[in-house]
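Record type: monomer structure entry
Structure origin: computed from sequence
Chain ID: A
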Amino acid sequence: MSNLYSVGLGVGTQNQNGEWLEVFYPAPLLNADAAMGDALAAAGYQGGNAALEIDTQVMADLAATLKNTGQEEQANIAEQLSNSERPLVLTVLAEDNAPASTPEAYLKLHLISHRLVKPHGTDLSGIFGLLPNVAWTNEGAIDLAELPERQLQARLKGQLLEVSCVDKFPKMSNYVVPAGVRIAHTARVRLGAYLGEGTTIMHEGFVNFNAGTEGPGMIEGRVSAGVMIGAGSDLGGSASTMGTLSGGGNIIISVGKECLLGANAGIGIPLGDRCTVEAGLYITAGTKVQLLDDQGQKVEDVKARDLAGKSDLLFRRNSSTGAVECRTNKNAIALNEELHANN
């Protein structure tokens, strides 16, 4: 059997109809070799992308097979899962195609949060339709249709069923906590977020799925879906980045290295390295920007989209005129020529 894109041995939750609500993969594997594929055949895997529900005996047999083929880490996981009282799943992705089931979708989200792939590094097409809207409680995931009965049964026992949120995405920290990060409010980081080492997410910071930070960095604002923040960059309090799902169209918004978005600032264009957006200033692609030279004199009016991806820029608002201005460490004339080089 040929190499596989990804393999996940997981344990999850199903509703009363046997439909998957969520899956936990302790150690998802990226780029599994042919030997792994051969071992999985013993558990019923026949090729392609598949999510196979298996019982504890099959998982125990798989653990022995994996151990015999030298797959020690996955063998250990399989051995532990073989003692489960919850539904077990073997998810195999032969290729990086759009997910076709809830277990496949969860495996891809795990790959990102485990830092095995970066945002935009795996196909997540159609993922919203595969993730059920779930009540996340102190007793785990519960189907919304089954929630009232579960709440009543808890009350009859003198207990409280705590519903922390109702969402398609769970919080990342219930599945993986990457090394070297701080998360002040764990509910504000979704599974499928990528947090590089040295990242701090403060209480009002938020990181969506398929988005994240290279680290180190301080996030006190919003990192929307699809946005990646470069190393050494900070988002001030309530700063925001426009995601591709909320008005950014097909433009992938990103922030380069050593950038600063001041408090309440925002961007709808990608930034290069060492850029600053002053507090309270929101820049969209169509924002009219006055390009200034090193003497503070206007050289030309441009659209913010013309400055997308450029480095060493300072965006500010003129306190007297209200005009949005851009100064740069580069000579403004040289930058102007660069902007028009491909016209």
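Annotation 1: The chain has a mean pLDDT of 93.
Annotation 2: The first helix runs from residue 34 to 41.
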